[in-house]
Every structure is written in C-alpha cells, then in structure tokens.
Amino acid sequence: MAFPYAGNAPPGVDPEAFSWFQTVDTDHSGFISVKELKQALVNNNWSSFNDETCLLMINMFDKTRSGRIDVYGFSALLRFVQQWRSLFQQYDRDQSGSISFSELQQAFSQMGYNLSPQFSQLLLARYAQRSPNPSIQLDRFIHICMQLQSLTDAFREKDTALLGNIRLSYEDFLAMVVTRML
Fold first, then answer.
1. Sign of CA dihedral 110, 125, 142, 103
2. 8 Å CB contact between 55 and 95
3. In this predicted model, what pLDDT tens digit does every residue of 48-62 receive, in sequence order?
4. Quick check: pTM over 0.90?
5. Contact by Cβ (8 Å): 88, 99
6. What is the C-alpha separation between 92 and 90, in angstroms, rounded?
C-alpha cells in the first residue's frame, strides 16, 4: 500500500517521526511490525531492542489489535521511548550506558517502589546479559518498568485497604497476571 501522505507528515505527527516511519516501513505497508520496529530501535550500546520489549510496545500502541502500528502509533511510541530514555539516563549515574544493580535499586526507590535488594537481583538475573557485573540496557529497563507498573496497578485494584498485601486464589492470581501482561 502506498503511503497516503506523499512526503508530508499527517496532522499531529512529528515530521521527523514521519520520515523515520517511512524508512522503517521496509515493506511499504503503511504499518510497522515487531520485526521492523526492532530494526529501528537501539540501546545505548548499539544493540537492537529485544523482541519481547518490541512486542510489548507494539501491543501498547496498536489501536486495531493487528500486531502492528500505523504512523500515529509509531510517532507516539517514539515519544514514549524518548521519555524512557531520558529517565534511563537520569538513573544511569555513572554514564555507562546501562543500569547496574545499585542504580536499579535507586531507580525503583525514586519511582516509589519499595522493593528488596533480592527482588532487584532477581530482575537482573532475568533481564541482564550474563556477565561478572550484570546491568540492564534501555530496552529491558522499559520492559521491567512497564510490567512492574501494570502488575502494581492490578495489585492495587485488589488491595483496596492499601495494606500492601492481598488474599486471592491461585486462579485469581493467574488471571491478574495474564490480563496485565501487555
């Protein structure tokens, strides 16, 4: 499908985002797939964003539930990534391009999450590249924060007294997690 805006950004779309959209839309369908998005986004170490994070973000901005995003969704997604990149750089205190264990702990605390060091270590073990000093790249930071926010929202819906703990059945727990996985 030829793109209907023939060189001009549609109303409400940043011209730079529109230009990038046209470059990233390699099949010229007028939509961006997970594969195309992965080619467009890079971490601070120039590695591509991982598939899981790209899928999470496509699903977040895919208004038609088709598994791809149009130029409006892409423009919004770029703004979203830029906001996360700014936050990431703020928490990357040593300017290494990745978030270490202590930086992750500090980030969670400043975002209002009271999480144990053991939980942060668990996240590093799950999402960081294997190395003597594991750290989190931008894509994984976005992924963790999106999931943490979503699951926190689900928890708060059940924790009406704001006690910090809830009682629910195993199936209710599974339903809560599955419906919140973006």
1. positive
2. no
3. 999 999 999 998 899
4. no
5. yes
6. 6
